[in-house]
Specification:
With 215 residues, the chain is an alpha/beta fold. It has one domain: Ribonuclease H-like superfamily/Ribonuclease H (Nucleotidyltransferase, domain 5). The protein contains seven helices and eight strands, in the order H-E-E-H-E-H-E-H-E-H-E-E-H-E-H. Strands 4-3-2-1-5-8 form a six-stranded mixed beta sheet. Strand 3, helix 3 and strand 4 form a beta-alpha-beta unit. The radius of gyration is 20 Å and the shape is globular. The N and C termini lie far apart (44 Å).
Length: 215
């Protein structure tokens, strides 16, 4: 929840010291877990997004265990999928439309799955959802090394104006040029997600593994 306050005099603002912060407790955070499925386009050799799932948890504790009952009540999820082929590039192969009974089957058996017409629509839907959820932390497996780079490069490829919603600053200049990294990819990702934290479980896992091996 975003709240805006206005004071008549800056002197009315009182800074909390460490003792007061301890008494109030650590504020909860909103997290979004993201999983992306990609396929390599045989014509362009570019990794394209064909499906993704995102799960938002609100009121996650940064210290101690989060109440599971509270988490279940405050979580939301979306799953998006598109046809494997690209209507704008039929030479890429694969289906450019869903089977005739696909949407009916999804509505009946997978109500949380949303079919999208193409990759552009799929990414736009995700960006809009990120803006709505406004997560403090984005969590993914190999998010630094692959997922975020693919998401940003595909958003840049389609020149999507809302690409900046992966972060909290509204930026006009796309981080990639023609869908390719223009500089160090980690720096580009860090700059794009300004205002949010990116938690990569793949990187964290390697750190634990290296620690075990060294010991």
């Amino acid at each position: 929840m975003q709240v805006e306050f206005q004071v008549s005099d800056p002197k009315d603002v009182v800074r909390l010291d460490n003792n007061a912060a301890v008494l109030l407790g650590n504020p909860p955070v909103t997290t979004m877990t993201l999983k992306i499925k990609t396929v390599v386009n045989p014509s362009t050799q570019a990794s394209e997004i064909i499906s993704l799932s995102a799960l938002c948890h609100r009121s996650v504790k940064t210290v101690g265990e989060t109440d599971a009952r509270l988490t279940l009540k405050s979580q939301q999820a979306i799953s998006l999928i598109r046809p494997l082929g690209d209507a704008a590039n039929k030479d890429a192969g694969g289906l450019t439309t869903f089977p005739h009974d696909f949407k009916a089957t999804v509505a009946a058996k997978f109500p949380t799955l949303t079919p999208c017409f193409n990759e552009r629509a799929l990414i736009s839907r995700l960006l809009a959802q990120i803006g709505t959820w406004d997560p403090d932390v984005i969590i993914g497996h190999n998010a630094w090394g692959f997922d975020m780079e693919v998401l940003l490069s595909r958003a840049s490829h389609y020149k999507l104006p809302d690409w900046h919603k992966v972060g909290r600053l509204k930026k006009a200049q796309l981080p990639f040029k023609n869908g390719k990294v223009t500089s160090n990819s980690e720096w580009v990702i860090a700059d794009a997600i300004t205002g949010r934290m990116l938690c990569d479980t793949y990187v964290s896992g390697k750190e634990f593994l290296n620690k075990e091996v060294s010991e």
